[in-house]
Structures are given as C-alpha cells and as structure tokens.
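Late entry, evening session. Most of the bench is empty. Finally got around to the prediction I had been postponing all week. Sequence below, unchanged from the version circulated by S.P.
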Amino acid sequence: MITSAPSICFRRFVPCVLQWLAATVCICGISTTALSAPVKTDTILLSPPLADNAGTGKVPADLGAMNADSPAPDANREDEEQPVAETQVATPEVLYDVDQLPKPVARMRAQLREAALSGDMERLRMVLEGNELMPTLSLTKIDDPIQFLRDSSGDGDGLEILAILADTLDAGFVHVDQGTAQEMFVWPYFARYPLHQLSPEQKVELYRLVTAGDFAEMESYGVWLFYRIGIGPDGTMHYFVAGE
C-alpha cells in the first residue's frame, strides 16, 4: 500500500547509516569506547606571587603597577632627617692681658687707642702716617685714608669709626701664625675664632661690638665681617678693615 512505503524505506535506511558511521569510526582509529571515556585531568597548584621574594623586601615585577601610586620606603630617610653636627675645630687661645704684648705691639695699640678716644681724626692721621707703611683701610683703592674713614662713619665726621676703633682694641685678642711671615696680633679675637663655638659669655662680649642681626649674618657666612685690627710683632699696623 502507498501509506506503508515510507516506513519500509526508513527501516532499511537507518541500518545503512549506522553501518556507515561505524565503518568511518574504525577507519579513523577511534573507538566508541575512547569517545565515551572520561577525560583525566590534573590539578596544578600555583605558589603565591610573593613566594619568590619572601624576606627580600623587593616588589615583584608583576605587582609594580599595582604599587606605583604608593611611595617606596626611603632607606636613607632616617639618616637624612638626623641633624648634621657642626664640625668642632681647634680654637686659638684668647688673650686679654695687654701686658703680655711685645713692647712694639703694646706701643702701637696705645697710640691708636689714645687717638680714638681723643675724638680727633687728625691725631689718628699722625699715627697712621708714622706707621712703617699705610695700613689697609679698605678692600678697594682709596686716596685720602682719613677722608675715607670719615665717609665710612655713620655720623659723617669719623667719630663713630673712632669709637669702633677704641672698642675693638679693648676686646680680647689672639696671637696667630706664630713663627711665620704672617705672624700677627689680631683684635677682636672673633676674627679668628669659629663663631659656632662661642660660649654664652663670649657672645656677650661679641654683642658689645655688633648687633644680633649683624651676628646672624656673619653666622650664615661663617666668618667675622666687622672691623678687625692686625698688628705685626714689630709694631707695624697692617690693617683696620671690615668686610671679607
């Protein structure tokens, strides 16, 4: 019958298809058992990322980007924050007894001091001109030394300079460069003394010559910048000068 034809054909077609599939599988060397067998898997355990660097304090390369925004610890920071101690240097002996001065030095000091206390600039001129050589009064070239001192004085007449000269000669002094061509007696001793090593008592002496503001500026330079006087052991006055 026409209605049964499709069923007969289907029953004949299905076995053929199954036989063809089986043959194909065999040709390829694959068995149905292999296809149905479960796949064996292995579990791989990964070590923590930081294991290779444990105890080294280093940031792993693959974590560098993660920590880029965090500042790395500075190993030298603690050392940098420590105050730097000022170097202590040998200090010269400070002298006050003018009786210990060689006679030529004591005589020149006395003449300068008397001229200063007299308030007479011309009397000071006589002392300077009686010196073996004209002492250095400026770090630049000058013509008339007395006129230069008048112009340098705050009052315009030279009286302030005379007061500074007298006060400087009354201060403590030092005997430096002994046994050399530069041997000198220097007033005040601050000119050859490390300023950062001054004691409170010495600073009181210093403030009799300069202000606290002046001293602060000198400390920043590390040297005495106010007036100082140098007299050689033979009594020759070499300088009365300020500045560096």
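Two things to note before I forget:
Residues 5-27 form the longest helix (23 residues).
Confidence is low (pLDDT under 50) at residues 1-17, 20-37, 41-70.
Will write this up properly tomorrow.
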